[in-house]
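note to self: dont lose this again. the chain is below, predicted strucutre after it. 65 aa total, dont forget to put it in the shared folder this time
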Amino acid sequence: MKTTHTSEFTFGDRVSIDGDDTLRGFIIAVIFHRDRPAEYEVSWFASGDAKTAWIEEWRLILVER
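---
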């Protein structure tokens, strides 16, 4: 059985998290699930520290670089 996955975002896309314009990061990975939407690993800097988190697709908004 062949499955095709689609993604709202691609690697390197800049995104806003939860609509917060001060919280922006870059997509660095994507994971596809059989029974729910994709999740994206997002990387950003906060207070001089590099942060990463897996975030659900519905929480992200594409922003211009």
